[in-house]
Amino acid sequence: MTRLSPRHPRYRSLRTRAHLGALARTGVVAPEGLIAHGRGEAFDYFLGERTTASARRAIRAAAVWLANADHPVVSVNGNVAALAAPAVARLQRARPGLSVEVNLFHRTPGRARRIATLLRSAGVLDVLGVVPNSRIPGLPSDRARVDRRGILVADVCLVPLEDGDRTEALRAMGKHVISIDLNPLSRTSETADLPIVDELTRALEGLAAELGRSRRRTVGEFPPFDARGALRAARRTMARRLTSVGARPPTAPRSARRPSAGTPRRSRRTP
Ligand code: ATP
User: Could you say which of 15, 203, 223, 236 would form a disulfide bridge with 198 (CB–CB 3.0 to 4.6 Å)?
Assistant: First the structure.
């Protein structure tokens, strides 16, 4: 594997890519998952690679929904397991009773088992969905396959890095759907009851921290959330960053700063 220098300005991102690449070779991450990650990275650039005030509000609201749920479930795919298995374990510790269910677009029994092993080794208890025994009505393909003790009976579903069809199908079943997706334009973000537009690991850490704070729990109470407003705020942040960065004069790359042949070199002493 290529050695990465910690001094590289994008060291963290390169490390994450190398990690995902390695897990793609073991079959935990699907090749399509690598593409989805790239899409997410682009949106995180636009967002400024930080949790915005609006995302923080969404995280706080989501923590209340998860706390008040009768049966909350977090749905885990290959990318989520690869990027955030320890964060999923921390979330489960912060919200005892949270079910963790493997749900895959590109399912093979071996892949589901490998993802479950990764989750367990990070400390997740009782991983569901390895051998699904029920279906989400109205959804074709393997994405419909769920666990009778998990997503099928959940009242609140946390769906990180989900696709729009499934989010819609879960809502049609009457579930309260919380998404985590960096793309405020995705069908998932557009469809979820409570979209969190933030990077997966930041959002999960934020949720665990919020849930760790003691609060009164009222089962079945889900205070309304302004999903449209949250998406508008995320789009505004991205638009603002794109235009303000664009308004700054571009920094010339080092090589371009050297005077070219024929350009008279200015003396350092010239005022
Ligand atoms: P949709 O059906 O919702 O429109 P999609 O086709 O845009 O989905 P998918 O490829 O199904 O997207 O799912 C990946 C989504 O997850 C993308 O919207 C991407 O921005 C987002 N994403 C990828 N990596 C991360 C991450 N680390 N944190 C948060 N979101 C991410």
Answer: 203
Instruction: Supply the pTM of this predicted model.
Output: 0.90
Any atom of ligand 1 within 6 Å of the Cβ of 192: no
Task: Write a three-state SS string for the chain.
Answer: CCCCCCCCCCHHHHHHHHHHHHHHHHCCCCHHHHHHHHHHHHHHHHHCCCCCHHHHHHHHHHHHHHHHCCCEEEEECHHHHHHHHHHHHHHHHHCCCCEEEECCCCCCHHHHHHHHHHHHHCCCCCEECCCCCEECCCCCCHHHEECCCCHHHCCEEEEECCCHHHHHHHHHCCCEEEEECCCCCCHHHHHCCEEECCCHHHHHHHHHHHHHCCCCCCCCCCCCCCHHHHHHHHHHHHHHHHHHHHHCCCCCCHHHHCCCCCCCCCCCCCC
Q: Residue 83 CA: which ligand 1 atom is closest?
A: 27
Using the mean position of ligand 1's atoms as its centre, give its distance from the Cα of residue 269 in Å: 54
Domains of the chain by start residue, with CATH: 53-235 (3.40.50.12640)
Reported as a single tens digit per residue, the pLDDT across 97-155 is: 999 999 998 899 999 999 999 999 999 999 999 999 999 998 988 889 999 999 999 99
